[in-house]
Structure formats: structure tokens, C-alpha cells
Amino acid sequence: MHLPGKRLAQFSPIFALAGADFCTGFALMPQASPNTSSKRVIAASPETLPTSVPLHTAVLVGRFQPLHNGHMALLHAALERARQVVVVLGSAWQAPNPKNPFSWQERAQMLRNALSKEDAGRVRCVPVRDYYNEPLWVHAVREAVHAHVPEGASVALVGHFKDSSSSYLARFPGWELISLPRLGQFDATPLREIFFGEGDASPEAMDAALARLSSQMPESTLEFLRHWAQTPLYLRLQKEWHMLQDYKRAWAKAPYAPVFVTVDALLRCRAKGQDQVLLIQRGHAPGQGLWALPGGFLEQRDSLWQSCMRELREETCSSISEADLLAALQAVQVFDHPDRSLRGRTITHVHYLDLGVQPSLPPVQGADDAALARWVPIADLPRMEAEFFEDHFQILCQFLPVTLAQSEPELQVA
Question: The pTM is what?
Fold first, then answer.
């Protein structure tokens, strides 16, 4: 996919990347070397960043789950060198989970609380969703940046190559890349492990957990976590975190990392003037209460089609004949992004079935792993985006005419 860039001008925004870990493509794209010919790479310490060109905007991209001292080091380096900073908050409008527990608004609040009033006045936060499609994600980031930069301004990427998750640093041809050394802790995963793994309902346990985190994040973030831990959402996600740890321990002695194969049924029907899709509400963790496609794991002796039909019947009590479903089959598509599931590497095969126009919707009822099954108008899907399990909303967008309701608004931190 070719996505046009914008013209370049005299100002040079800095694009700082906080070791973020984004879901940007359904399949892994070839790993690009940071020393790509499409850009000039400058290795610099924070004290030796080039300052000969007047800088208008610095851009910091991250998930900030939660905000920690590594993020703050990059943010302060950007503030020292630019008139304003645009913070791109990744994984926006996603249902809370143990990897992404905080909404983009809560993360903007963490940033606001950690800055002086003067610095906060120079920072704007822009949310960007996970597209599970790298060209779309890169385009969304470019659009978010250039909306706050004089037309045609040149861009310099400033970041730290943490690991393979930082490969997207090389995905912006034409943008200069300034590679910084490690500025403190760049991985929030162990911080979330302490927060969910060692804190519990007792104030003493949470105090002990936050004490372990105190050297890794601003005091304002600690206070945010202290109050957030008193919400019902913390207890639900903590339970889910423990469930996922048990799940991974069960496979820890396997001779190699497991790869799970799943199937999902995307069943569409038009009846009584409405275009609708069949969804289930998950009855168990992970993602209890979230909307999803009917589906599940491939059985040992099933074909993909057989497993898809079985899961559809078990979770929705569908009485549609297999012959009618086979006639309705439009496509089978694989969704295999390595980070699409917190359970581990999970490759799903989505069966897109279109029943066309019917006099009425086939009756359904939630059963087995589904607490609820119902037909949902496609027009209602955009407002449900933050209520979907894993990447199921993005899967729906691949097949159905879904118009995204959420824009990427600017939020001034001050």
C-alpha cells in the first residue's frame, strides 16, 4: 500500500519513541535495519542531539502502560529541544486488559500530573488505535504528527532500539532517525507484573508493591496507581493477569513455545432492513464480558471448517444447516499477528459467511463459553470498539463496512 507523505519545510520535528510495543500488522513484515538508506541515522546522547536546525515539534510515541522514568527521560529530552511536544498514545480505544489496562485519557492524565504547568502547556496528546496493519498504523501516526506541524516540516525520529518491537522505528522513510542510548527503564512489563502480581485487596500489599515501583516512575504515577487499584477494574484485571500466568505456566515445560490454532465465524445477515452480524459475549476470562466472534480452538481431529461449525453451534445454538452455511461461505482469512492474543502465539482462521437477505434473523442463544449471543447491527459496531476482545473489532473492519466513530482528537495536557 502506498501512502503519500507531506512536503518538507524548514522546521524539524523530533519524533521520540519510548520503546513502545505496538500491534501494527496482521503478519510480521521483514525486520528493517535501523541503518536504512531511506534516512540518515545519528547516534547521540541526549546532550549531543543536533541543535543547529530550529525545532518546532518533538513527537513521543508510546503505550505508557504505565508512565515510567524511561518515558519521562525521553519526554524531557524532547521538551529541551522543541517548541512543543506531541505525544502519540498507542493502543487507544482498546478494551482494558493486563497488558493495556489504562485508557488513553488516563495515560494523558499521568503525563499531565508528572509535568510542571509550564511544560504541560507545551504538550499535546493524540490517541492512535492499534490497526494490526502496519501501513495503516504508520499512516495514522504521520497524520497525527503533521496535524500539529507546519505544512511540509521535516521529521527526525528520536528513539531507543529496545528490541524487535522497536523495528517500526525504521518504517518512516524520509524521516531522519536519531538513536538515543537507553534512558532508564524502557520496559513496563515487569512494572505491571509487580502491580498486578504483588498487590491485592489489602492496603499493606499494595503499599509494598508500590514501594517496589517507587524508583521506576514519577510520584504522581504512583499516586494514580494507588487510587486506580481501588477500582473494580483493577480487581478484574488482576484476576485475569493471574489466569494468564497460570495458562503460560501450564505450557512452560513444552519443548518449544506453543502456537495455538483457532477458528472464528463471522456470520452476516440482512433482515428487516438492517445489516447485522452475529456476536457473542465472552463468559470467562480472558476478556470476560467482552464482545467477540463465535469461535475457539481447533480440535485434534477436526478440520478448520468442522471446528468452525462446531463452535458456532455450541456458542450460539445456531440451527442453520451446514449446507446453507457452506453456501454462505465467502472467504477464509488468517489473522496471525504475534501480539494479537495475551494467551500466547495464536493464529486464527476467520470464516466469513454471508446469509444474504432473509425474512428474519436466525434465532440464537448464548451457551458453552458464551454468556450471550445476539445479532448486532453493523451500524452499531463503531461505538462498541472499546468493548471487543483482542483484535476482533479490527477483524470485523476487514470484512464489513464499518465507519470508525472515534477520531484521533488532540488533547492538550495542560
Answer: 0.84
